[in-house]
TrEMBL record:
Residues 21-305 form the NADP-dependent oxidoreductase domain. Pfam families: Aldo_ket_red. CDD domains: AKR_AKR1D1-3 (cd19109). GO terms for biological process: bile acid biosynthetic process. This is Aldo-keto reductase family 1 member D1-like. It comes from Mastacembelus armatus. SUPFAM superfamilies: NAD(P)-linked oxidoreductase (SSF51430). The record marks 87 as: Lowers pKa of active site Tyr. The active site is at 58 (proton donor).
Length: 328
């Protein structure tokens, strides 16, 4: 299948499909000016994006929903053209809280359904009014839930028509197998959203997911601009975009290192969701369908893999379900 700006979706195991590039919408809620996400989503849809990745925990789903609705109202797109992914946060893992969490997203966005709803982390936190519950010593308060019971509650939401497809995020092989081998499984996860870029190519997890018809959605495909508390100290994430190989390949095609990094994953049928609030960068990130990397170039970029995870989430590394202790 030839990838074009108009047609670059891959099939999911439930019969739906997902565009290979989407706009990530995470922004620090304390420092991102009001309206920033709204403007970014509008620019993205006008530039050709049809896949928007968001989450309740980003505290901007109202802006995302408003932008989507306005672009539908002005005739730019129809609802069925847009693919929206929402996420179930850690404090909503108990089965009875799953549907209310999804309803909250639908109400906030004023949409009838989301296209994909994923378990954001396998790590449950204590349910309640605060999204990051801590004790008096500042330690996170965890919660023990059965991921299979959470999944069954999600299956009920799909059966009720509130969501088209179900997936997970930051799950390792063992945690994926918990769901895949669950007795009475009705709906397989269609996707696993994990960090994926030329310095962290995820070969083992990618192969495992391919064998099980699960699409990898790569977050931080250009490194990460998140607060340093999110990532480890191995290396500054911005180094990825200064990589000499990516730059030299880019020069050949008159493309940036970032565009080469995105194209690399897209050619591997790994979905990319680069986050940007900069209108020019949003447009640039989408310009990856007018060139194609050779097999030799793909192999050379694969050789950049350093197995470096930028987003380590070490503040939760003592959680019993912390996913990154395992090899993959």
């Amino acid at each position: 299948m030839e990838l074009t700006a108009e047609s670059h979706s891959v099939s999911l195991n439930d019969g739906s499909s997902i565009p290979l590039i989407g706009l990530g919408t995470y922004g620090n809620p304390h420092t991102t000016p009001k309206g920033t996400t709204y403007e970014a989503v509008k620019v993205a849809i006008e530039a050709g994006y049809r896949h928007i990745d968001g989450a309740m925990i980003y505290f901007n789903e109202h802006e995302v929903g408003q932008a989507i609705r306005e672009k539908i109202a002005d005739g730019t797109v129809k609802r069925e053209d847009i693919f929206y992914c929402g996420k179930l946060w850690n404090t909503f893992h108990p089965p009875e809280l799953v549907r209310p969490a999804l309803e909250k997203t639908l109400n906030t966005m004023q949409l009838d359904y989301v296209d994909l709803y994923i378990v954001e982390m396998p790590t449950a936190f204590k349910p309640g009014d605060t999204f990051h519950p801590r004790d008096e010593n500042g330690k996170y308060i965890y919660h023990e839930t059965d991921l299979c019971a959470t999944w069954e509650a999600l299956e009920a939401c799909k059966d009720a028509g509130m969501v088209k497809s179900l997936g997970v995020s930051n799950f390792n092989k063992r945690q994926l197998e918990l769901i895949l081998k669950k007795p009475g499984l009705k709906h397989k996860p269609v996707s696993n959203q994990v960090e994926c870029h030329p310095y962290f190519t995820q070969p083992k997890l990618l192969e495992y997911c391919r064998q099980n018809e699960i699409v990898i959605v790569g977050y931080s495909p250009l490194g990460t601009s998140r607060d340093p508390m999110w990532y480890g100290v191995h290396m500054n994430p911005s180094h990825l975009l200064e990589d000499e190989l990516l730059a030299s390949i880019g020069k050949k095609y008159n493309k940036t290192a970032a565009q080469v990094a995105l194209r690399f994953n897209v050619q591997r049928r790994v979905v990319v969701i680069p986050k940007s609030f900069n209108p020019d960068r949003i447009k640039d990130n989408f310009q990856i369908f007018d060139f194609s990397l050779s097999q030799a170039e793909m192999k050379a970029i694969e050789g950049l893999n350093k197995n470096i995870r930028f987003v380590e989430l070490l503040m939760w590394s003592d959680h019993p379900e912390y996913p990154f202790h395992d090899d993959y």
